[in-house]
Amino acid sequence: QDCACSAQNMQLAAHDIGIGCVWIAIYPLDERVQTCRKILDIPRAITPFALLAMGVPNEVLPPEKRYDETRIHHNKW
Questions:
Q1: How far is CA 55 from CA 26, 34, 73, in A?
Q2: How many CA atoms lie within 13 A of 72 on its CB side?
């Protein structure tokens, strides 16, 4: 959980200064863990959790519209 919180905070900080960020999950997929270790020369004692790809966005996309009124329940289940 600590790694996820840290990665999310880095994404939020990047966004705050105009940098785009994409979370690339590594753990728990063993093939990704091993590939990441090999490419980045990470010791066996360290388990890579995620990669954060950052850069200046080419374009700013509008937020996704996820609101669904049918999923809101007022004072009932």
A1: 19, 25, 39
A2: 5
Cα(40)–Cα(1) distance, integer angstroms:
23
Annotated domain spans of the chain: 2-57
pLDDT at 77: 78
Determine the Cα–Cα distance for residues 27 and 50; give it in Å rounded to an integer.
7
Q: Which residue has the tokens 């990441």?
A: 36
Whole-structure pTM value: 0.71
- Dihedral sign for Cα atoms in the order 65, 70, 74, 77: negative
From residue 3, give the alpha-carbon distance in Å to each of 49, 70, 74.
7, 34, 35
